[in-house]
Structures are given as structure tokens and as C-alpha cells.
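Review the following:
>
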Amino acid sequence: MAEELDPIDARILDILQQDAGLPVAEVAERVGLSASPCWRRIKRLEDSGLIRKRVTLLDADLLGLDFEVYAIVKLSLPSKENLQIFEEAVGHWPEVIQCATITGREDYVLRIITCDMHAFDLFLREKLLSLGIVSDCESHIVTRGVKNVTALPLALVTPHV
């Protein structure tokens, strides 16, 4: 069950999703509070786990990390042991920026970022396929990103955002 948010908490979360680097005083002004009560609310939201962490979003294109692939992975045998091996390995691969188990014929979908096709091929050969438990990998190269946001749709859980 999702935690109930009052309208002020929801607005604070929405503001912080857009720019976590804003000073507390500015967030407070936007939601109509003074800095101290706003800071206490933010601290409570962090302590409750609703705010997991604050990060800086980088420009992948400017860094030369503009080769993006979605890979649909099927394990040869999706046993508990193989799932654990695969998930532990994925956790160590910096190229994989998202991994999710999925329903259907396949077992996982990976979002992979590299600098070019050669680096992706190297990743496939040296990491993914060398595990020895992957029976199939269907790769989908992203030709153009259409939408890429990190903010959750808070209006779905509280109409006051």
C-alpha cells in the first residue's frame, strides 16, 4: 500500500524530483512554509524511505556515452541459482543502468549504455554471454530517445500536485 501524502509533502517531492539541488529555503518558499518546517518534512520523507537518495543527472551525449541498447535476455535455465548468478553479475556491470525481471518467454530486460557498437559487442561477448547461463539475447538499439524522465507521476497518488 502506498504511503498517504498530504498536499504539501507531495508538492515538496514534486519540486525535489525536478531539482534536488534547490536550497531548502527555496523549496519552502514554493510550498508556503518557512525553512525549518520544510527541512523537517524533507528529513521525515528521507527517513521514511520515500526519498531514497539525491543524484545528479549527467548528459550522456556530452560524455560520449550515447549508444543505448535494450537487451531482452533469456536464461538457459531460469533456476533460483542462475537467477542469483545473473542478478549478482548485472550488479557489477556499469554498462547496465537498469535491469528488470519480466513476464513472458524471456527473463530480463536490460538497459545498456556504452560509447559505441564496438563497446557494446565487447560487453556482450566478455560479460553477458561469457556467464554461460544466457541462452538468448535480443538487442534493440535506440535510434532516438523520445522521452526520458526520472520523476514519478505523483499526480496518480495524490491529486493535489
Summary: The chain is about 40% helix and 20% strand. The chain has a mean pLDDT of 94. The radius of gyration is 20 Å. The helical segments are 7-18, 24-31, 35-47, 60-63, 80-92, 117-128.
